[in-house]
Amino acid sequence: MTTEETIDGEPREQSGEETGESGDDESATRPDGGGRDEGDHDAELTHVDETGDVQMVDVGSKPDSKRRAVARGEIHLSSSTIGAIRDDEVEKGDVLATARIGAVQAVKHTWETIPMCHQIPITNVDTDFDVREERVVLTVTVETTGKTGCEMEALEGVTTGLNVVWDMVKAAEKDDAGQYPGTRIDGVEVVTKEKRAVEGSD
Amino acid sequence: MTTEETIDGEPREQSGEETGESGDDESATRPDGGGRDEGDHDAELTHVDETGDVQMVDVGSKPDSKRRAVARGEIHLSSSTIGAIRDDEVEKGDVLATARIGAVQAVKHTWETIPMCHQIPITNVDTDFDVREERVVLTVTVETTGKTGCEMEALEGVTTGLNVVWDMVKAAEKDDAGQYPGTRIDGVEVVTKEKRAVEGSD
Amino acid sequence: MTTEETIDGEPREQSGEETGESGDDESATRPDGGGRDEGDHDAELTHVDETGDVQMVDVGSKPDSKRRAVARGEIHLSSSTIGAIRDDEVEKGDVLATARIGAVQAVKHTWETIPMCHQIPITNVDTDFDVREERVVLTVTVETTGKTGCEMEALEGVTTGLNVVWDMVKAAEKDDAGQYPGTRIDGVEVVTKEKRAVEGSD
Amino acid sequence: MTTEETIDGEPREQSGEETGESGDDESATRPDGGGRDEGDHDAELTHVDETGDVQMVDVGSKPDSKRRAVARGEIHLSSSTIGAIRDDEVEKGDVLATARIGAVQAVKHTWETIPMCHQIPITNVDTDFDVREERVVLTVTVETTGKTGCEMEALEGVTTGLNVVWDMVKAAEKDDAGQYPGTRIDGVEVVTKEKRAVEGSD
Amino acid sequence: MTTEETIDGEPREQSGEETGESGDDESATRPDGGGRDEGDHDAELTHVDETGDVQMVDVGSKPDSKRRAVARGEIHLSSSTIGAIRDDEVEKGDVLATARIGAVQAVKHTWETIPMCHQIPITNVDTDFDVREERVVLTVTVETTGKTGCEMEALEGVTTGLNVVWDMVKAAEKDDAGQYPGTRIDGVEVVTKEKRAVEGSD
Amino acid sequence: MTTEETIDGEPREQSGEETGESGDDESATRPDGGGRDEGDHDAELTHVDETGDVQMVDVGSKPDSKRRAVARGEIHLSSSTIGAIRDDEVEKGDVLATARIGAVQAVKHTWETIPMCHQIPITNVDTDFDVREERVVLTVTVETTGKTGCEMEALEGVTTGLNVVWDMVKAAEKDDAGQYPGTRIDGVEVVTKEKRAVEGSD
């Protein structure tokens, strides 16, 4: 019966995931991919079951853990647009405030935006914008106490927050042909992902 | 009165936008940013009014036009993950099918994801995945007949579609420390943005 | 290029659909399936493109038409539950009022519930409950002026409205083992689907 | 005061529900409705309070339990459509993959689709499509650890999943008059509903 | 047949509404209620049909008009909170920027928040906050080109915007007992409602 | 690092909130605002961090508590409209039933309507309408077991419920000029807010 298979299938996948996540090194240090399992593909695509059909991961037997994920990305903008944002920031900060709110809302909506995501109780969202030469770097930190990680929430916060910045500066970035020759979102990555037992709270 | 100001303020911004968008060159050729107006910042931040407060752009006096926007981006993955997606694609394509649906839904939800976006009638969404060496390139084309462009819809489709791919291959991409050393979304940009009068239909 | 193909592909599908829908007989009379094309499957799955990938149908070149769809379905309930609903109806009608509202909301949300549906401007929704012996029959009529039909909206209204009835009478329908031996939703079908040119308005 | 009454009213209903659900027979065997209480209607309509007004059920004093519900339903299609789905399934499975995703999303959205439902943490969703002669049978299993059952979530998954199948094969099912003479959703029912104390985990 | 009745019923209601809205006086001057029809109740509850069941109003035969509605309301706050908002406004304006975005989003979501509302294309939203002695006054202007008015959208913008202000200053407004003795939302009303034929555009 | 600051910042704010909410007086008695802290504004705007940027409050280290909030508000209507609602209430109650459902849905959607709100598990919602001379008073009670209060949920229930009443009686309230001279929402306030340790359950 499908459900049996699913239950049978999960522990293997889960224990694998546990191993990964309960490793000693939970810092943001970035080992090369050597550790990445080059083995059976089917075991790796945890959202695809034995018969290859898409599915949610069964988290029913996972314990609640304190989880934290940090994602980061940047948007390249013209220096004149950066100037407008800076002035704005000094005076009102509405551009970044709007992007901040868009990012927080995207984090909370990840369970419906990413089809196979579970809905988890978000306990904290922190958004940090760094306005630099010709780019804005957004770092989003998400914390939850739940049965599954929150890196997708952090990634959704970053990509949506950067898209909101783009939307807010459209007229400033468009050239005479109505195109965006210099606007680009780059370097969207998960900086770090951590998991702690609920007992071992900070 | 605030509304008067808004109405007064719009034509200036709109005519500027019209100029930009009705330019001869509507192709995807990418002129350098020279054409970008280096002038008054306030005029450029069309989502911020005279007093610096965030606002939607008034599109009430804009005509309906046939609009089309194409956005593109890519996600860098390990060769083993690419292999899993390829095998999958041949057999079922569920990973990309899920990302495809996530992208289409994101396009339709842009009006609520991007705070200052208007809701526009999407007439067509096309998603094209190109699975290459160690990366998947997603191109999203959005078409609408409305009063405002759809590049934000195309960008939301690209970033969400790539996030869904990430979600589907999480276990395959994580290293032994549960981190994502090699996973990264890059090169998210608007390939082209076009506008045609409804009369001059193709 | 994918978009070209899509555009090339659509007219064939669309004209086919036009033929179907502009036929003389738009009444609810139910001809046998003989008319159903037994031919090429690819041409029939309009949400799957030439390469078999899921997609929305391009409705950009379709004219706005006045469209109307009627769907119907029923839920089988115990006579005691029917009695409770009847008494309720006489006194307050809250059970059916709740189902009515659930049905209307489902109609309006079809564009996000059914992944490949377009968002269309719903101009009218009519819900009609017929409380009979051991069943409640729900008929939902949806009207729109747009580029695509609204039968999915009517079907979503019927299935959701009947599910709301089920939710409202859960305690009454459950047996001593907490099961629903006699509760069942049946006969969900599209009664009729009509399309009129906007010019030829009533 | 209304709230007192509500609190007074609940235990009676809840204990009744407990009795029902903690019964020995939790299997899918279908006893006749004899066990169904033919008594006071007001006590049975738990979403309607003493004064007949619609309300949510107060679950604040219910313990968290591991709950599982299985619902099933089918859509009748022409043999040519079944053929198209089969071919598709072999090649890409996009039709069923789309329906699968629509079903999972519907399960997660039940708290807003069914007005009086609570939002519960879904831990697992399993969708199983069985493509038979002239019909597709969809079985959806939902698991949660919470204060209330998840049969409405399973039912929403089934009806929405079947509606998505309908949407994906519209052009194939329509006859020359644009009607659906042979398409029908039938037999939507709750196969089984189970509840286990959190302590007694599998 | 229910639909006939609905269609029969509409013109009476609509013409009545037309009469009301096409009156000479469309300014914000507030005549006394003398003009209010004291007659048949059934004719007045346009969301309740002849049999008393809730329904949407059929707007299918209504022409598109340019519509504008202005709503206003205020929240009473302590002088210390007003001071915090003022300082904030000078420095960043994040409190009001958040309320502004909450108001705009609420306007766009009115079609799902108010069960019987239609979804209409919002062309402009303007939010104006006036920070006074111990209160903040919010005025929201909504413009649309559609078949039905937008006063509900303006009202949703005002009440939600004021609720967001409340949420942002919770800790400042709570007394030692965790209560809100002085916080209150008052005077929520529709300042004016206008309608112009699309032909006779400004 | 931003997150550290956030964590450093929270305890001060939280303990302050604890003090407030764990005070002896949890009744609805309304002490004068004397207890309200007139001190440092930054400490009071808990949704704005040290650098003045909007943020969610970190509730990760807060214990789960049983929380209850009661909010109340009223809408002023003409006596003829009140008559229509009364007659309606006796016969079907659809106007108030619709407002009731709108209020419950608004309570459940507060986490997305109010940008900085967390999503909390609502265990009970009670709506009480009191139809009086020329006004309807709505009282909404919300209960949750979570890490943060639910007064915003109760307020959203009240303002949305009253807006739904307005929407249902629009035609009855409009004067000959299509204006609402006598319709007004007033007195929206939090009647009481309570918190109990989960151990000390009722």
UniProtKB/TrEMBL annotation, chains A, B, C, D, E, F:
Sequence segments annotated as region (Disordered): 1-67
Task: Extract one GO BP annotation from the record.
Answer: Mo-molybdopterin cofactor biosynthetic process
What Pfam family is a match for this entry?
Answer: MoaC
Q: What is its EC number?
A: 4.6.1.17
Q: Where is the composition biased (Basic and acidic residues)?
A: 27-50
The reply on keyword DNA-binding is no
> What's the superkingdom here?
Archaea
Q: Kindly list the GO molecular function terms attached to this UniProt entry.
A: cyclic pyranopterin monophosphate synthase activity
The pathway noted for it is: Cofactor biosynthesis; molybdopterin biosynthesis
Lyase as UniProt keyword: yes
Q: Which residues does the annotation say bind substrate? A: M116, C117, H118, M152, E153
Q: Which UniProt keywords apply?
A: Lyase, Molybdenum cofactor biosynthesis
Acidic residues composition bias: which ranges? 16-26
CDD domains tied to this protein: MoaC_A
Read off the SUPFAM superfamilies from this record. Answer: Molybdenum cofactor biosynthesis protein C, MoaC
Reaction equation(s) it catalyzes: (8S)-3',8-cyclo-7,8-dihydroguanosine 5'-triphosphate = cyclic pyranopterin phosphate + diphosphate
Q: What function does this protein fulfil?
A: Catalyzes the conversion of (8S)-3',8-cyclo-7,8-dihydroguanosine 5'-triphosphate to cyclic pyranopterin monophosphate (cPMP).
PANTHER family per the UniProt record, alphabetical: MOLYBDOPTERIN COFACTOR SYNTHESIS PROTEIN A
Q: What name is this protein filed under?
A: Probable cyclic pyranopterin monophosphate synthase
**Native organism:** Halobellus litoreus
Q: What is the lineage of its organism?
A: Archaea, Methanobacteriati, Methanobacteriota, Stenosarchaea group, Halobacteria
User: What gene does this protein come from?
Assistant: moaC
